[in-house]
Automatic annotation (TrEMBL), chains A, B:
One of its GO terms (cellular component) is cytosol. SUPFAM superfamilies: Dimeric alpha+beta barrel (SSF54909), Winged helix' DNA-binding domain (SSF46785). GO terms for biological process: regulation of DNA-templated transcription; response to amino acid. This is AsnC family transcriptional regulator. Keywords: DNA-binding, Transcription, Transcription regulation.
Amino acid sequence: MDKILDIDNIDLKIISLLNEDAKTPYTEIAKKVFVSSGTVHVRMKKLEDMGIVKSATLNIDFSKLGYDISAFLGIYLEKSSLYDTVIERLKEIAEVVSAYYTTGNYSIFAKIICRDTNHLRLVLDKIQKVDGIDRTETLIVLEESINRPIQFFDKEK
Amino acid sequence: MDKILDIDNIDLKIISLLNEDAKTPYTEIAKKVFVSSGTVHVRMKKLEDMGIVKSATLNIDFSKLGYDISAFLGIYLEKSSLYDTVIERLKEIAEVVSAYYTTGNYSIFAKIICRDTNHLRLVLDKIQKVDGIDRTETLIVLEESINRPIQFFDKEK
DNA sequence: CAATTAAATTAGATTTAATCTAAATAGTGT
DNA sequence: ACACTATTTAGATTAAATCTAATTTAATTG
């Protein structure tokens, strides 16, 4: 009775394999899943049409590109009703890569990526100047120990 | 004097374009960057060899796959020297998608993705039972308002 | 500053994959 | 069992990836 029922193990297997390497040819996926490559196409088209697979992106080592510091920000708003307008302001700041509405003390929980400590300071300044933001707490990332996709295994029938 | 100097604007442009859609054919990238597709190949090979481009992954809407709840966890350890061993335990828990060593009060900051509140409870239980973990704080994600790659523009020469 | 060498880029040929179509197969409900 | 629908498949066509050799560009040195 759930839209999830439109998705079977073949779909999940295809997603899992492509999620490890999105550039794997469909012909190769087809062999591993024991269907024809046409079926892989049809299934992927379905998954894209359903909005389950939204896009494919590169996994980039930003530190090697000179973006050496990332940080999580706990943002406190003056009034929680300001959430939407503050999010719009944050969208305009290129260094903000994600922002969430979460339970807990913070009004907004965000992540930013910066080149160095100086750049970080500039970005924090910019964020603290946004109207409606009261104050922020910064968790600077010193090490990324895990970063991987979910793995869903074959759920037995 | 920096490894970053091996990377020019052509590389950055290629990365930017492919980061929006990793499945864009190199021939199309080539046109937009005004080089031949062979050059795009060579550059991407270089970027992969340098470890800057690590892989390509799908951007999946997990909620549509039945994974409806994600949460950030602030984890307190009994002793901070236990970091490495606890990370190894967390790696064994499939629902843990990322974990960081950060400044601030938490010893480990992690993210998990679960199907529903019941599944979340199971996973939190499992995590709280890991040897060395003192207690955890949970920030449940109620809305993802921003989630995007960094955009680096052409840094003028 | 010309000549030599090295590096990067390119066009073109070949291999491989994506995509499309029509036929075959498997499911569904009556 | 029959008709209807949806899914899968093989095969053909189109398009892209990959490789190679040649050219162009840039860098280096006498």
